[in-house]
Structures are given as C-alpha cells and as structure tokens.
Request: fold
Amino acid sequence: MVFLLARAMQRLRDATTNISRVGRPSKIPPLPVFAEFIGECCVGKTTLLTMMQEFYIDKPLPSKLCLSMRADDPREAVREGQRAASLHKELSTEDGLASTVAERRTDYFLYAGDAAAAQLQVCDSVGQALTKVDSPADRSKLYERYKERLCRANVVWLVVRCPSDVSENDPQLKNDIRLGQRYRRAALSAHAGTAQRVSVVILITKLDAVFDSAQRAQETLTESAIRKMLSELIGMIEASEVLHSAVVMPVSAIGFATLTAQAGGSRATLRPGGRCQPFNVQGVMPWSILHGILPQETGLTVRQSEMRSRVITMLEADLRELNPWMCKIR
Reply:
C-alpha cells in the first residue's frame, strides 16, 4: 500500500514538472557576433574599449535595447569600473598608459527587455604579438590564438592613428595600413568559399592628438579627405568577395581639450579633476552588432529569426537617432 502511494505521488510530481516545462518558454540563444581588433601597440585599442564600456554599457539605446555585461555575473561590471578608474589614474601621471600585455576577452549582451538577443564577444589583443616576429614563446602563443580568433571573426575593428598632417604619405599611417592590410586579408580570406560574410569598421583614433576640437576634426576630415587618406586600404576592402559592409569612424577615446601639456615638454596628462569625454564612439558597438547579425539569415529557429528581425529594425532606428559620424564604404 505504501509502495503504491509513493508511486502515485511520484507520478503527480512528474506531471506537475512537465506542465511547468510546457508553460515556461525556453530561452532563445543570443545571436553571436565575434569582433576582433587589428592594430599594433599604442594605437589606442584598450583605451577605446574601456571608454566605450564606461560611457555606453548599461545605458539604454533610444529603442530601449541595452548593452550590458554578463547578467549572471554582476562582478564583471565591477571589474570594468575598476579598469576605467585605473585608466584615468594612468592618464593623470607623466608615465602615461601602459601597453596591453595580456589578452582580455569581454562578452557584451544586447538585451531586449530581459532577453539577450545578441552576444558581442571582443578580445583586447596584444599589439606586440602582431608585430614582433622574434617574440618569445609566450607571445607566439598569443599570436596563434589571435589568428584563430581573427579567422572566426564576423566583424573586424581595424585601427589606424590619425596622421598629424592628414596625409596618405604619413609614415606612421602607412605602417598602420600595411599591418592592417595583411591581417584584414587573413580575416577575410578565411571565409572564402563559405557563406559567412565579414563587416569592417576602420577606426581612425587619437583625433585629440591632432585637432583641438570635434568641429575642427570634422571640418578637416571630410569624406573626400578620408577616402584619399585611406585610399589604398579602402580599395582593398571594397574588392573583397566576402565583405558584407564597411565604414570608417573617426574617434577619440579621451576627448578634446582633456589633456594638459607639462613643463619641459614631458608627456601630457589629464587635467586636474578632469575626465575623459570620448567622441563619436557611441555607434561602434551598435553598428557592429547590427552588421554582425544581418548576414545571419540561415540556420535559425523561428523564434531566433523573429528576434533577429525585431532587433535589426530597432538597431537601424538607434543608429539613425545616434547619428554617428562615419564614412560608408559599402
């Protein structure tokens, strides 16, 4: 009798569990977007990424979509806040910013309400691993891991420094373009013969080192000036058969008139009590997520496809509202 009663109770529990499972919709896996930097050391990758996080993470977009860190580990937001504070501290000393010596992977989630619609994975690469051909073994391992990520990326952030004379003949710019060309080709050629398409954002960084204001930068870097300055790089990108879309975004991670020169010509530091005020970085992540998921048309569940269509519409509206300064290549 006791045995029969126990079996009946177990069946009741199983039935209740099954009803609960049917009534609770399963999670929709977020659409993955893998973004990878291309750029050597000292082009401003780490500062740019840190400032984008500090100013635009956990702040709703116009559509109410919201970029955030991992919801299941709120400590990530605390760690990123500590990194931003450390960056401001480094900028306040004459030693300046230290080069990135360790990879740092960060996962950002685009939330539509409480549902993660897309996942943007970014790894802050070690620039020296791209340029030091006689690197020690540990850095060679970084390079091999970087190549693997680059071949998987469906969004590439190609970083070049703004030349002081805004000329295509600037030696540093030519070096940045040469490096960018080689790694960009590796990223895009990895997808030759496949259905995957890659989008490219060319980030012209350190505008604040050349111009004293955003207005001056925009007056000088017209679309024709940008196309002339980056003509070689743009031409190669346009010729790619696996390219989905590409833009140029001139940015400043620190902002204009935030640094002050020190006596004796030493390194400029952050003004006392000053804070970084990044310029034109608001569109980098939304554009990257949008153009990372636009080519993802196959292999989706019905609910994923519905979510994708909804998010595309919202992100397109967000970018119109944010109106970032960019030069469209394709």
Remarks:
- The chain has one domain: 28-328.
